[in-house]
Amino acid sequence: MTSMLALSLLPDHVSNPLGIMFSSGMGLFALAIVVILVIGGWKVFEKAGHPGWAVLIPIYNAYIVLKIAGRPGWWLLLYFIPLVNFVVAIVVAIDVAKAFGQSALFGFFLLFLFCGIGYLILGFGDYRYQGSGNRGGA
């Protein structure tokens, strides 16, 4: 346990984690990244025929991404299983890329590893949503 004397000697921003984040400028940088991700996701959702505001709702946006990828809604449960969620995220990213006429490499690198860049490219580029194709309900 930390004594009250030790806590009183620390600056206010050290005892508050949010103070550390926003005082160092990292908070503003993180906020800018989040805004960029939301804008890119909004445009992709609209191109796919879904409401753009859905990107703002935490679980619902993952459900919509599954629908864009042509995967069933129950796959949402797989996101909650450790290690399985990585495999599912890769498969869904590749399927989203294919739904926009892009390659599996585009899906893996720009939608999975560097997700903000890929969604911005799909959202603001000349790519059209071609549908999920025939996935066989898998």
In short:
With 138 residues, this protein is mostly helical. It has 8 helices and no strands.
Task: Write the topology of this structure.
Elements: H1 4-9, H2 12-15, H3 17-23, H4 26-47, H5 58-69, H6 84-99, H7 104-113, H8 115-124
Helix pairs in contact: 4-8, 5-6, 6-7, 7-8
Keywords:
138 residues, mainly alpha, 8 helices, globular
Written account of the structure:
This protein is mostly helical. The protein is 63% helix and 0% strand. It has eight helices and no strands. The chain has helices at residues 4-9, 12-15, 17-23, 26-47, 58-69, 84-99, 104-113, 115-124. Helix 4 crosses helix 8 (115-124) and helix 5 packs across helix 6. The longest helix is centred in the N-terminal third of the chain and has 22 residues, at 26-47. The N and C termini lie far apart (52 Å).
C-alpha termini separation: 52 Å
* Beta content: under 5%
Supply the number of structural domains.
1
Number of helices: 8
Share of helix, binned: 55-70%
Instruction: Return Rg in Å.
Output: 19 Å
